[in-house]
Records
---
Amino acid sequence: MNLDRRAFLGAGAGAFVCTLAGQQIASDGPEPDLEKLSAGIEVPPKVRASARQNPLTPAQTPTPAPGGTRREYWIVATKARWNIVPTKRDEMMNKKITGSTKFTGWFYREYTENFGAPKGPVSMPGPVLEAETGDTLVVNFRNDLKIPVTMHPHGVQYTPEMDGAYKGQFTDPGGFVQPGKTFQYVWDCKEGTEGVWPYHDHGPMDPMPLYKGLFGFINVRKKGAPRPDVDHYLVFHQITTATSGLARGFQCINGRAYTGNTPTLRAKVGQRVAQHITAMDVNFHTYHLHGHRWKNAAGKVVDNETLGPADSLTVEFTEDNPGRWFYHCHVFSHLHEGMSGWYIVEP
Ligand SMILES: [Cu+2]
């Protein structure tokens, strides 16, 4: 085990988050050198063998169900500079946020067919992968980062080869996509997989790439079901000092912290609104929305629901209350470090 003094103090004093290549990482400690750490990880045998062949695997494609569609995506893992608090203000407390808020984030970025060109700017979360029950999701993934990363889905149906998870010596090629390489994931959205699910990196450096922004949503809609008028997607997570190298940590929604920087959600009275929330760190969070209420899974009317790590929640209601509202995590320490936003309803 090779710890420099700063890393050792960080690991000893801080909140433990993971052990990578034998090094303990503290979430509030210094930023680890992931490239250096990952260089010490042995390339698993099945990955070594596949690297000599065409790495974009000929799909062992599950056929879409009758009437189903093959939904193909082209996604690149990439890095870009990212500002956590672009306005430098917290509109909730009407207060200035001082100090540096920029770091190098990691992103799943959607491209046009055959990795032609980016479809838009980088985003946190990555693109929403949309399907209906009976469809097959085909995700062509290229890793432009300098360490092995993956895409691991929740909720949908897949074989172990399509798991996108590092499993030591048992790792399949999709669980260790090396720098510059591609892999084709094929996931089945059969009946019973409907819902909104997270996807995220599950490679050998998991969860640090996820902390840097490698996460997104899959939305499998039930075929034929009426669509909401508005879908909102929110990820509750933290960007820690070990993630960013910044002097302090932030409690974030979609990579941004503090009201006015986090997504400002919008809807109109009369619209059917669906809000999808997941949590992606070591904490429990709650989703609280002012001026509104909905039925939870047990049928009880609530306005605040708890999310554990990687839980996903869909809140649905018909909008009936115009005005400027807050949505936020009700863990006060999270709220006051940035985990809140505006929800603006027009009459
Ligand atoms: Cu929280």
---
Amino acid sequence: MIVLSRPATDFAALLKKTGSREPAAHGLYFYPRGRDALLAGLHALGVPPGETVVVPAYICDSTIAPLRGAGYRVLFVDVEPNFELDLAKVLAAVEQGGARAVLAVHYFGFPAGVARLVSALRPRGVRVIEDCCHSFLTRSGGQPVGLAGDAAIFSMRKTLPVPDGGALRLNTASVGAAALAAGRAGAPPVARYLATRCAEAAVAAVGWPNIYAGAVDAAKRRVRGARPAHAPEPQPVAQPVPQAPSALLARYLANADYLRQIGERVAHNYARLVEGAAACGLQPCVPQLAPGCVPQWAPLCDDSGRLVPWLREHGVGAARWPWHELPSEVDAAPQRYPVSHDLNRRLALLPVHQSIGSRHIVRMLALVRQGMAAQ
Ligand SMILES: Cc1ncc(COP(=O)(O)O)c(C=O)c1O
């Protein structure tokens, strides 16, 4: 059996007669990816290329490289062990770099406290963008995440089986909002995406070949190119244009029942997996989900760092994050960014998405047990 790392296309949800659009999707400008929404958001908030942006060091390079390519200077701040940014460290970085914006990430679907950051930075004219790329369906205090800062960005393809779903919400009056509303490209095509996902579902059902095997991972990395020893030259990036959501995304977003069921299913999977893993001696980072939390993964503390390779070798789409995508400067400076390094090394992320069923959880826990016993 192959346990996929991402949810499968849900044809029943797509075919269902739909009603009103999910409240969390109101007031959004759509883009291909979250990184495009980030660039558009900075622009709309009056933070043009050339300015400095403070970002957590625990981040993937695919988010940072386009920022640099567009001409922004990036200043890293280490995260705290609770996945949040320390206000004093952020203020020091803002002061030091003359930063005009801060990116605050809600990691893996768990809401981070950003209110203190926003109240300290707003009077200084520094914008806060909430990165909700892992957290599209998460609610905190009854509200969708991403309402506290000046803007929020999303990457719905991490929560829903869609090829697109980058999105931007502006929470404050913004200089560039009118320009965003003015033009919109058409919806991206979905045929190729659907074909790939059907092929992936067939592989998962047959259980062969193992798309998560080490040899496959290594081949993928070779195709993407080896990581350079130093920060790569930024590749020029154009200002992104909003687009219509794909036909798949539009259908899912109009199906509030499907989206609600995702939250319920994921919470159920999370509780089962975390309980079973704890019984094997693996501590979950977040033992109990807060109401409204829809995690992207179940993060478990694996000091050996061996669990993820073991699970992948046995067909489970577990992951570390950002793994090989830690930005080069952060990767090269473990003393400066110890927590980001620690999280990157120790966290084993197990899939809990809506397509994970009971048999997948039983399989994952059996492998976890075997893997722990072998250590
Ligand atoms: C925390 C975070 N922010 C932003 C992004 C960018 O999202 P996308 O891949 O849709 O561009 C990612 C991508 O992995 C991410 O993990």
